[in-house]
From TrEMBL:
Keyword check for Transit peptide: yes
Database matches in InterPro entries: Isoprenoid_synthase_dom_sf, Squ/phyt_synthse
Protein name: NADH dehydrogenase (ubiquinone) complex I, assembly factor 6
Subcellular location: Mitochondrion inner membrane
Amino acid sequence: MSSWLRQVKDSVSQKTIGLMRMQFWKTTVEEIYRDDPPVQPVSAELWRAVKKHYLTKRWMLRIISEREKDMEDRAYRNLQELEAYSENTQSSLLYLLLESLGVKDVHADHAASHIGKAQGIVTCLRATPYHSSRRKVYLPMDICMLHRASQEDFIRGSREQNVRDVVYDIASQAHVHLQHARSFSKNIPASAFPAFLQTVVLEDYLQRVRRVDFDVFHPSLQKRNPLIPIQLYFRSWKKTY
């Protein structure tokens, strides 16, 4: 369901159509929790997951509602707004993953909250070249204004210092969230760690953007790191994130 919702914004030409799809998923979730899922493959699998793992309806509806608000297609007003969006989408998905793993732990929930926020911030940064090519900029406006970086600077792929400073500030906040998440690691049950392995990918991007001096348009950032699978295996084996 999450991947379908994520694609709605880019796959529709009219906001109204996107909102109709969001309403479909809201209705679907309500019907699933009434034990009357629509006759549709994704809905049927979601219903089975809900019955098997006792997934919380609130997290699903929160993801849908936040994606629905995102159909407004505008830049985040500030970093806090981006973090709130990330909490309501990425963190909510992690809460569902923890439930599917049978984990009910307050420390794991705190870690999930921070990892979700870090993931949302990194996703926003990673997508900047793609969005800019479509003449769209979603980076927090308060940070852009602080460094006097205009939307046009990003649209034309500027690699000037003020643009790098914007990226530095945003990336630094993602790094802070990863550090906070890891501060709970000693108190989290081992069964929760598989839900947090995406920290490997997040850390990899933050390290690479730092190596290119926060030039978000550097070609190397569009290439996949072939060592990621090995790093994921190593973290999984060590039960760390």
